[in-house]
Specification:
Blueprint lengths: L2 E5 L2 E3 L5 E8 L5 E9 L6 E7 L4 E3 L7 E5 L6 E5 L8 E9 L2 E4 L3 E5 L2
Parallel strand pairs: 2-11
Antiparallel strand pairs: 1-3, 3-8, 4-5, 4-9, 5-6, 7-8, 9-10, 9-11
């Protein structure tokens, strides 16, 4: 069984940067795909970025060039480097993993971008 725990959220001014981390416990070798989702109040979770096991990264258009998704090869930790943050990037960011066909979610970490 895989468990995910996010960290790294916080408050930052527009133009600033944050690095989110998603620690993986359990059989992280069973994970096929890992992703970051974002949710704002009143809306559902939306995909921000994903990374497949072969290392193929995909980004939603409004974060391309600003966000970078990566994964630590030694322990499976997933990262999201967020640069040039905008107020619209505010939300709860969730880590997601597809592990042996099971969907696994973390508890979320809050990112607030405000002056």
């Amino acid at each position: 069984q895989v468990l995910l725990v996010e960290s790294g959220g916080g408050s930052v001014q527009p133009g600033g940067s944050l690095r989110l981390a998603c620690a993986v416990s359990g059989d992280w070798g069973s994970i096929d795909t890992m992703s970051w989702y974002r949710q704002v109040p009143g809306n559902g979770r939306e995909l921000v970025a994903s990374l497949t096991t072969p290392g193929i990264a995909n980004y939603v258009h409004f974060v391309k060039g600003r966000f970078t998704i990566s994964r630590e090869s030694t322990n499976g930790t997933l990262y999201l480097q967020m640069n040039s943050l905008k107020p619209d990037d505010t939300g709860v960011y969730y880590c997601y993993a597809l592990s042996s066909g099971r969907k696994v979610w973390g508890q979320g970490t809050l990112v607030t971008v405000s002056s």
